[in-house]
Amino acid sequence: MLVKMQILKRGVILFMFGMFFSLVLNLLQTYREIREDETPPGLFDHYSSCWWVLPVCGLTAAFVGLMYPVLDSHLEEPLNVKSEWSNVMRCVAVFVGINHASAKLDFMNNLHMSLTLAAMCIGLWWLFDRSKSGFGLGVGIAVLATILTQFLVYQGIYKYGKADFMFMRSWLPCIFFSGGITIGNIGRQLALYDDKEKKD
Prior knowledge:
Blueprint: H1 2-33, H2 53-75, H3 85-104, H4 110-128, H5 132-154, H6 172-199
Helix pairs in contact: 1-2, 1-3, 1-6, 2-5, 2-6, 3-4, 3-6, 4-6, 5-6
């Protein structure tokens, strides 16, 4: 019963993180696409027609964050980086920085932007994860989320204002990858905290 309550608590926390990251990413990207003479949209304007985006991001974050520690224990792969909250917060800061770079920095072209963000994402993985399972899960998340996003945009359920690669933005897989690593680190840290509580 205690284990189920801990998993439920972790799932709720990860759900909230997923919704928060969705809001931050949307806010950064929305402000990139408006011109200086336009009135900035409200925080939730984008979600008026796509109300399902926030809960889907929350549920995905809960699933990914709960999967990382399960995969770690199943593969018995030792972590090569320190597992502590300060390290997790640095990972979150780098993830938000990658999102900020995709929204605010001007690149020569979309290929240059995508390659730069891909290098930053691999750097995030190297600094805060370094596990084969983490890299594999991050790539898997990026591929599946990109395919699902393309399907939703193709069906007209969701849309991007300035699509540049198969109905969507070319940097989106990088954001999915870095988001998966970040949520995975949060999930691992929450699982470690629960393990310490059980031992005490």
